[in-house]
Amino acid sequence: MSNPVFGLLPGDRALVVAPHPDDETIGPGGTIARLAAEGVEVHVLCVTVRTAKMYGSESVTSVRAEEFAKACAALGVTDSVIAWPDETGELDICNRQRALVDLIERHEQVSLATVRPKALFIPSAGGFHQDHQAVHRAAFAAARMHGPGGKPTPSIVLGYRGVEDRWSALSEEWWAHVDTSAHWETKQEALRAYGTQMRASGPRSVEQVRLIDAAAGSSLAVDHAETFVPYRLAY
Amino acid sequence: MSNPVFGLLPGDRALVVAPHPDDETIGPGGTIARLAAEGVEVHVLCVTVRTAKMYGSESVTSVRAEEFAKACAALGVTDSVIAWPDETGELDICNRQRALVDLIERHEQVSLATVRPKALFIPSAGGFHQDHQAVHRAAFAAARMHGPGGKPTPSIVLGYRGVEDRWSALSEEWWAHVDTSAHWETKQEALRAYGTQMRASGPRSVEQVRLIDAAAGSSLAVDHAETFVPYRLAY
Amino acid sequence: MSNPVFGLLPGDRALVVAPHPDDETIGPGGTIARLAAEGVEVHVLCVTVRTAKMYGSESVTSVRAEEFAKACAALGVTDSVIAWPDETGELDICNRQRALVDLIERHEQVSLATVRPKALFIPSAGGFHQDHQAVHRAAFAAARMHGPGGKPTPSIVLGYRGVEDRWSALSEEWWAHVDTSAHWETKQEALRAYGTQMRASGPRSVEQVRLIDAAAGSSLAVDHAETFVPYRLAY
Amino acid sequence: MSNPVFGLLPGDRALVVAPHPDDETIGPGGTIARLAAEGVEVHVLCVTVRTAKMYGSESVTSVRAEEFAKACAALGVTDSVIAWPDETGELDICNRQRALVDLIERHEQVSLATVRPKALFIPSAGGFHQDHQAVHRAAFAAARMHGPGGKPTPSIVLGYRGVEDRWSALSEEWWAHVDTSAHWETKQEALRAYGTQMRASGPRSVEQVRLIDAAAGSSLAVDHAETFVPYRLAY
Amino acid sequence: MSNPVFGLLPGDRALVVAPHPDDETIGPGGTIARLAAEGVEVHVLCVTVRTAKMYGSESVTSVRAEEFAKACAALGVTDSVIAWPDETGELDICNRQRALVDLIERHEQVSLATVRPKALFIPSAGGFHQDHQAVHRAAFAAARMHGPGGKPTPSIVLGYRGVEDRWSALSEEWWAHVDTSAHWETKQEALRAYGTQMRASGPRSVEQVRLIDAAAGSSLAVDHAETFVPYRLAY
Amino acid sequence: MSNPVFGLLPGDRALVVAPHPDDETIGPGGTIARLAAEGVEVHVLCVTVRTAKMYGSESVTSVRAEEFAKACAALGVTDSVIAWPDETGELDICNRQRALVDLIERHEQVSLATVRPKALFIPSAGGFHQDHQAVHRAAFAAARMHGPGGKPTPSIVLGYRGVEDRWSALSEEWWAHVDTSAHWETKQEALRAYGTQMRASGPRSVEQVRLIDAAAGSSLAVDHAETFVPYRLAY
């Protein structure tokens, strides 16, 4: 399994779209770290974060932005942004479907237009969270194929898993796997950057993420792996 | 989660159909142990075992029958049988579909007719192994609903997972879960009874089965669990 | 089929989430009646009802609230509420996805937080009605598994059918069945409480609901039954 | 709903492939009767019947052949045949996949080659019975599209339901419906021709078939209907 | 394949619901032309069009309305309307689900209530575009079956394909096919009416639409065809 | 789209399993040619060919073996074999499921054991032909993941399409695409090597294969492409 991951080569670019800070780490964090280590530039577009009480502790926008920056740095991300920070907690991205598509296509700092990525990582369709579903639909639409001279089209589109996404009534085909054994330590470091989000036990604990990655690894006969839905693989 | 498992009560009976010895342990072993501990009688009908070289070591029919008996004893199984021991290695159950249905319906020692179970455990549809598919189809057919006065019909039919069944192109709905944390030790003991089958590492190791059960448990916030496809739950 | 329904025991609690009054009766009404008769407390959270002209007659919020109360009483419901009565007809719950999740998680009278139910009944995913889809998605999200010390998580989550939901392009697995033969009379009484909603013939007639329940029963060899999608069964 | 059924016109021909006698009546019997009444020629190819003890009574090949002839006559079938009568009970059609395809393509009396039908009715894919699955696969293969000058290809291919086929783990899209209200009496007469097969109650009773057709009708707002999986509709 | 298309007869009416101008032509244009040529009245309800910069050129509402009228005339459409022209570009139909259902049910010029069609053509479920998904859901809901005396219900409901809809994560069953070989020239003329929308090459070129129709034709052994998802076929 | 195809590098090996001669060319022929041109060794294991009258002309085993050799040579295949030539026409591979798995795992000349390929190409699951289904199932089983020290496991497993496989009732996810524009001429040459199999028109004509590849290409905005089901992509 020493072939280039999905055929991506040093100098190629990947774009990861995350609904909220930590989604990029919990799902594809090990793969980001491996790609970065292999010379692929990874950019992360995080859609939003809001100030809210959540899981017993407070989630302050500015604190979460710092956590996000720290996690991205740990993973070796080239560039990252939180597009719509929401200090009042009133933004409901489910009702902004058209604007979401535009954001992913054309955000001035991190988007399909500016990064022109070979590979695009998006939340998988089966996540139960309404924001993940909205971002999935928008990113999927943005990833459609364009004709010559049209908008940039990523050759590779992969759906990643959210922390609680095994709770889903939608079966998807998790056919793509990346051996992230050598990058588990890095992923763990990035997870720990999310002090306000991760818990000591339960679905949002480092231990649970490790267990999921270990189980994914076991089906490849390696220590840790991440799995993806391969929406498009074009060569 | 202290409710009776699938509503089964002490004195109720369950029938587990296993293609080969060890399938009853690797998949639903913890659930068998829990049911037995809660007073439900569990019977196991194992279809066949053959003398063959396999995974580097020899698999002798008589040795495997002993392993099976030992594992069933560890799990607390009431009665068990290997219906078609195959010493010559020439039996291909894929070509005996009709006989397989008859076997599951009417074997004189352990079958739907003799056990008259409330619950039936069968291999899930998505297993890649041709024998598992054949047994799934036959057991599913045998489990059809009969009218009053007709053959006995199990109210509950559950599909269990094989050790390598994550390798499947068929999505099934793994919606039923049993917390087997208190019975992992027992399942481990039964797994270890299969000296000729289990390996030190890889898909057929105790460690890998533990990892799968731990990952299933993590989605319930418990230590270990087993998951099932709930083909029928009738109350 | 005398086992406890889904393993629920006297004293256990169930929560039914209904988009509008009558959904709780048309779909799972017989099951509610059976559970209540077997000592399980059933609570009903109805999301909304609006004043509107509908099917030729007028639907007045206050009248429908009375019908709802009467139907719930007939079924033996412990507590029930209509959360968002909409007298102006301007509420579009499709655009309030986040608020809907909060409602189901935390409504002060009838919600996951106050009832802490073992079983949760929600509209199935395949209903064609936009409000049913919105409530399905919100209730499904609210039902996700939480870690120890987190929000209450129902062990059992079932999707019920709407009156016209055979008109669906989404296949779901209707694998759970409840024999409601002994409770058909009660369900019929509750249906008749909906004077403004039920028609003399066609999809919204008592006769059609009876036919659907009788057909469901026939596949179990009983007189009447209700069927469900078993999204989660955890023991 | 007075349009020609699936666009079939007087003088057009239909071929129904039935695994055993009675399958043509229980599933699409009302539709056969309606087509015949509207001037469409219907031919029935029944694959096999065997002498066997079944459901408590004996099933003698010659008796069942008479029942089949009587039922076909009642429905208005133009021509019918039982291709492989099996007096010894040793034929296992599951192991004769290639011969089955040949049979459906080229049987000298009733087949695609001799009837050259516009419409082909086959068992749906989801039947649990191994013989129904074998006939489905073979008929589906035989129905493939041929080029100009090649074998005859039916423009319309429909899957019909078996009596117990709601017991299925395979979801199919039952999108085609035929109002058979005016032909229920005829179907009932054909059902009654099967004296050795039909029971007084349970899945194989006239009453249960009526209930299924009535429930199918209710979703069209008519008295009785039959539903089909529309594998191909080419115009 | 000279049977009446889906059984529709001269004088019958069909309604096509299109999210934006050109959807009615790119997807089912050849079928519209064939139906019109065979005496079936076809009405087109186009939901919206907005003034926007798109694919490099400007899309002016009034210009697009002219293109739409010209294309409909070429196809032989009886009546057509753009319901919600959006000159400011601020309308987001995704947030108007309830109003969309009302529009399709009751628009005063072209709707289910005024046309009372036998056949309804709607965007298929799998389109990636958020507007197509919203119109699909609303049209599907509007097409539900009503009882006698209720709203008009189309007997036939077909999903058509959008130009870029092969980019979809939702598998649908494209089981219905219409031979449009004799009407390709007409479809091409209608496509060319969309001067601001069609491109010289790529997904939105006449050549690409031709290729898709030719490939669809090849699976029927004809020159050109269009394929549909048959959501309902009731006779 | 100049990245290495599926990440395969010069010197890597691929194994193509074909039920009969010509399946390797009609489905993945352009991809074989491209891989070979890029330095990947491609080996082809063809299961069987029989002497039979077919499509009006005679199919002689020895002639077809020559055609196969010629086509493989044109595509740049390194090594190829027909494992079970069947001169009597009596072999029914559907009844030899276990032997088929063994063949693909251990054939002495071209198999998983001898080639130890990075990538494995197998018939997709949805083919209607009984032989293709049998080979799919066997090859899928043979491709399961083995532990360290076990049998060789291909990291990449792809399902390819048969010439008539759009006639299928099984939806699969055709998410992988290879731009074969530069290799269409080579594929055409290989197709033409099959003098006894290809027809002047219809599904088995060079023109129809070209149309399918052109339509597949159009969704990538290239001239020709081949599409695959990505059962496993492990890196």
TrEMBL record, chains A, B, C, D, E, F:
Gene3D superfamilies: LmbE-like. GO terms for biological process: glycoside metabolic process. One of its GO terms (molecular function) is hydrolase activity, acting on carbon-nitrogen (but not peptide) bonds, in linear amides. The keyword Zinc applies. It comes from Kutzneria kofuensis. It holds the Pfam family PIG-L. This is LmbE family N-acetylglucosaminyl deacetylase. Keywords: Zinc.
